[in-house]
Each structure stands twice: as C-alpha cells, then as structure tokens.
Amino acid sequence: MKLKALLALAAGLALAGVAYAAEGDVKHPEPQKWSWEGAFGKFDRQQLQRGYQVYKEVCAACHAMHLVSFRNLSQPGGPEFSEAQMKAIAASFQVPAIDDKGEVIQRAGIPADRFPSPFPNETAARAANNNAYPVDLSVIVKARHDGANYIYALLTGYADTPSEFQLLPGLNYNPYFPGKQIAMPAPLVSDGQVTWPEGNPPATKEQMARDVVAFLAWTAEPKLEERKLMGVQVMIFLLGLSVLLYFAYKRLWRDVDH
Amino acid sequence: MAHGPSTYKPTNAFTRWLDSRLPIIRFLDDTMMQFPTPKNLNYWFTFGGILMIMLVVQIISGIVLAMHYVPHETLAFDSVERIMRDVNYGWLIRYIHSNGASFFFIAVYLHIFRGLYYGSYKAPREVLWLLGIVIYLLMMATGFLGYTLPWGQMSFWGATVITNFFSAIPFVGEAITQWLWGSFAVDNSTLQRFFSLHYLLPFVIAGVVILHIWALHVPGNNNPLGIDVKGPADTVPFHPYYTTKDGFAIAVFLLFFCYFVFFNPNFLGHADNYIPANRLVTPAHIVPEWYYLPLYAVLRSVPDKLFGVILMFGAIFVWALLPWLDTSRVRSNKFRPIMRQLFWILMFVIFILGYLGAQTADDSNLVFFGIELPIGKLLLAQIFTIYYFLHFLVITPLVGLLETPHPVPESISKAVLAKKGAASAASA
Fold first, then answer.
1. Residue A252 is nearest to which of B40, B240, B420, comparing CB atoms?
2. A171 and A149 in a common domain
3. Which stretches within B237-304 are classed as H helix?
4. Quick one: pLDDT at residue B426?
5. Residue A159, φ and ψ in degrees, nearest 5
6. Smallest Cα–Cα separation from B312: which of B295, B329, B289, B331?
7. Domain residue limits at A201
8. Is residue A194 part of a domain?
9. Count of H helices and E strands in chain B?
10. Could you tell me which residue, A173 or B417, shows the higher pLDDT?
C-alpha cells in the first residue's frame, strides 16, 4: 500500500516535471473523471441542472452566453428541464424588445430568446470590470486546451499569493492561468453559495465547480449525446460492411494467382 | 499498358443508338470496368480510390455547409455555431467536413509516399506525377482557405501569417499582399474572397483529378514490383477485382475517419479556433493545421523571410524534378537496397520536421518527452531541411548511379508464381 502510494507520487512528480519543462511554470490541470467522456458518455441531467443554477447565480453576473437559448434547456441531451420549468426560467428574465409603437421596452423572456447578456457591449463590460473583459462562455470548454479539466482547475485553483510572486494591482493569483494572475476574482468563495433543491449533493466549492463545468461542456457541445449514439451505430455498420467486403474480396480473388 | 481494343457490346436498342452517338457507356466500361490492372497491387495502392471518395465527401458536405454559412466577419463565427446547434445534423456535416480535410491529407500523403517508394513518378508516368503535385498544391490552398472561414483566432492569424508570405516578394510584395487581402489587412473583404475561392478550388481539383486519371490510364498502373505489364497474364479487370479490394480499403479507412468525426471531432483542430477572431489579440502560439507542419518548419528554419518562402515552395517543387533526378533504371525500392533505407530516413526527417513545425518559434533547446536535448530547435530544423533537399538533389541522382539493384523479375505473373511456389514449399 505504502509502496503503491510512493510509486504514484513518484510518477506524479515525474509527470509534473514533464509538464513543467514543456510549458514553462504554468500549472497543468489535473485530469478529472467526467460523465460524458468515452464512447457511451452521457451528461448527468441533475448535474447540468445544478450547473445551470451555478452559472445563472454566479457566472452570469459578468459573463454572457449569447449562443444558448432558453429552449435549449429542455431539449434532449441537455439539462432536460420540463417544458413548464424552462418557460418559467425564460419568463424570469427581462429581455430588450420593441413594442408595436416602436418604443424600446423590456419584456419577459420566451423560449426562443437567447440568454440575455449582462452588459450591452464590450466597452460597458470592460468599464465595469477594471478594464478586463469577461469572455462569452458559450463554447469556452472547446476554446481552451483540455477545456473541462482546465476550467475546473481554474475555478478551484485560487490560492494565496506566494511571497516571492509580484502580483499586479487588481489581479488575483491563480497558478493555472497563463501568467498566473487573472482579473477574475475567485467566483466560488464559500460552500453553500448556491442553494440546490432537496436530494442534491451538498454545494461544496468543488461540487459547484464540477457542476458548472458540466453545464459549460454541454453548452459547448449540445449535440454530444446524439453524436456519440450515432457514432456507435455508424461504427457497428462500418465494421459489418468491412467484414462483408473483406470476404467478398477474398472470395473473388481466390482463383487469381497474385 | 494501354487498354486494348474496346470489348464493350451494347445490349439493347437504346445503348446501340447511344453508342453510335455518344459512346459514354463504352468509355466508362473501358476505363472503370475492363481496365486491365496489375494483379499484384497491395493495399498502399488503394489510396487513389480512397482519395476519390474523400473528394466527393468534401464537396458534398461543403456544398451543404455553404447553404448555412455566412461569409462575413461579424457573422461567420456565429453562423458556424448555428450550424452546430440549430441546423438539422449540422454538427455531423461540419465535423465530417473539418475532419474530412485532415483525412483527405492523410490519404494524399500515403498516396504520394507510396508513389515515392515504388517509383511511380518514373517514365512513362512523369505527367501523372506532375498532375498529382498540382492536385496537392491545390489541396493545400483549399485547406488553408477553408480553415480561415470559421473566423476564429487561428483562422484569422493563420490567414495573416500565410498571406504575409507574399509580402516577401521584392518591390511588389506589399502591393500583391494588399491585392490579395482586398484591403490593408486581413478583414471582411479577405474572408469573402477566401470563401469564394474555397468554393471554386475543389472543382478545379476535380478537373485536374480527371486529367490525373487520364494520365494514369495511358501507361496503366505502376505496381509493387515496378515492372511493366507484359501481357494479359499480369492483369485482372478493374471491376470486380479492384472495386471489391478498394471497397474494403475504403470501408476500413472510413472506420478511422468516423472515429474522429463521432468520438474525437476536435482532436485535429486547435482550441483557439473556438475563440472569435480578434485582431487586437495575437495567440501565444500560431500553428497551422498539422498537414502543413513540415513545410512550416522549413519556412522557419531560415531567418530571411523571402528565402524561407522560396525554400518552402522549393520543398514541394523538388518533387516535380524527381522523375529526372532519379537516375536509377529500377522503379521499385523493393529492388533497391540502399534507396529503400534512404526512403525511410526521408520519412523520419519529414516526421521530425513536422514535429519541429509544431514547436514554439524560438531557439531554445528541444525538449522531447521531458528530456532537454543538447541541440537547439532552430539548428535541428536547419539540419533536417538541408538533408531533405540533399536527399532529392544530390543523394537520389548519386545512389541511382552507384547502387547495384537486386535482379528484377521478368514479369508480374512469374514473380507471383515464384512467390506462391516458395510459400507452398515452405509450408510443405
């Protein structure tokens, strides 16, 4: 047991050494287990619903997600809120619109609306965030190398600034971020920051981070489950076709010296 | 071997009527059914058929994508995401097209290297080889243009780097670059013309492919022995013998292709291309698609931009000289003990150049699997680039003169029978 742990530690150190040598001194995210990995991977509906709540109550204060619509929340392969829940979520938002007199108004959201953005434009977003721009999160998991692991590591990786590190004013120390200092303050600061309905695991910082990463993985790749299911079917078909073609080929060439 | 007299016989009144007016069925029967093909082709010779399939896959998926894509700098990125989210099976069509480009290149590299190994470029197939190089260059241009269309960070900065090659031309470089851009920088006018050209070039490729196949059908296929077809005993009709063999190879190739499409669709891409293009933020590390990496390493091995660009295009141009640089009278490396080893060294050199092309552009030492090697990346790229050119320009002509090839069999059928005999003797 001890030997195993020692070996694991040694392997970990060796790997860390490799990572260190390859990428300067930015810390590499540790690989996590995610439910949607593998050929038969699927999202966990409850996890996506919890993740949506973390996104809505924490991330959405600064980050837009302009590629996702409310209707997506009840589509197959996603959080699969019920139709009524989804409509209630949409109606709880105010979205800009134009009324029949041409006046700019705010109205309650409908399923076809995209998620409203917290800021009207980039300049406003920067003005409110110390000149940093909170990026759109729609495809963030695909837009970062090792996306899900990286974002999980980033969300849980905030640490006290080492004494020898020169932190610029207004920035926060995070060893996983390129340059190790990030404008975004730690978004998940305390356990129980989000209140989930009964029957869900306790809202620890790690659990909230895992769930919001799952939600972001879904928004980046909303057709993932459909894709993998079809993939399995296509692979089985092609395998069968290859076998048939192979025997047809061998049968045909049996009488040819070649 | 050219095909003999046509053996097609129209079987009904309509085909007889058509045959005396437009003998298209006769043409297809001669070239795709009866065409005498050496009976000893191995699986490396199936990539021609695979490439035909990939060209058709790319054209069909591309035409459907073009129905939904919007070539405008403010709309392109979101229109691609709309394809991924709201177009029926849009995710499938896009992932087929983006991974299809990579698999098209995997197949074309294997096809080219097969030609290199078996001496398919040598007389009487020089024109066939040259047309192949034209197709490859057109594919490179098409792949590059297509990669700019999603208008992500790598699209934009890749386009900026590649179009800047032309600014290396003395005196008129800047004017030519601005003419290509249609502007003073890569912007909306560049994107729109790239889309237009990306739609055009595949049909040019299809046209050159027809010439390529025509040039194939005059001398006939080369084969692993590299010897000429001596008579009917050496060949089988293309159909059904090679339609089934190619069919099997195509199905296996599609298995690999579909693994990436369905289970790892973004593996061959770069994460930065899911960040919308931003001219104010340069990515930390601009890398081209994997299929350009060896050429990218050649380009960067020279500090001088113009010379680097010349060298990069020269790396492909030397292929065009190969039919005349190779002095050996034996085609296939199967009978060339020295050249065969040099072939694999060349493959290694190209692979390492590709690896170097993916590294950051600085002169630090190469770190390979965590071990720092005592040699700079730049120096290594220079050594391998020099070797690459030496292989074609010096080694190939010299080895052709100095090497003593193994005896070449008299005919394909005799070689086949000898192998059969040896096999049955061994098993007996």
1. B240
2. yes
3. 238-263, 293-300
4. 67
5. -145, 170
6. B295
7. 29-68+114-222
8. yes
9. 16, 4
10. A173
Residues A184 and A242 in one domain: no
CA dist A49 → A43, A53, A55, A62, A209 (Å): 11, 6, 10, 20, 13
For residue B195, what pLDDT is reported? 98
By Cβ distance, the residue of B252, B271, B417 closest to A147 is B271
Give the span between the Cα atoms of A193 and A61, in whole angstroms: 14
List pLDDT tens digits, range B70-97: 999 999 999 999 999 999 999 999 999 9
The CATH number assigned to the domain holding B296 equals: 1.10.287
Beta bridge partners of A105: A97
Q: pLDDT tens, A9-56?
A: 444 444 333 333 334 478 999 999 999 999 999 999 999 999 999 999
CATH number of the domain within which A156 lies: 1.10.760.10
pLDDT at B363: 75
> Hey, what amino acid is at B28?
L
How close is the nearest chain B Cα to the Cα of A12, in Å?
13
For residue range A194-244, what is the model confidence (pLDDT) as tens digits? 999 999 999 999 999 999 999 999 999 999 999 999 999 999 999 999 999
Q: Which of residues 278-337 of B touch A (CB under 8 A)?
A: 284
What residues in A contact B257, CB-CB < 8 Å? none
Is residue B293 located within the same domain as residue B158?
A: no
Shared domain for B225 and B295, answered yes or no, is no
Q: Which two tokens stand for residue B20?
A: 């005396």
Does residue A37 lie in a domain region? yes
Nearest to B396 by CA among B407, B388, B385: B388
A21, A220, A239 ranked by CB distance to B370: nearest: A21
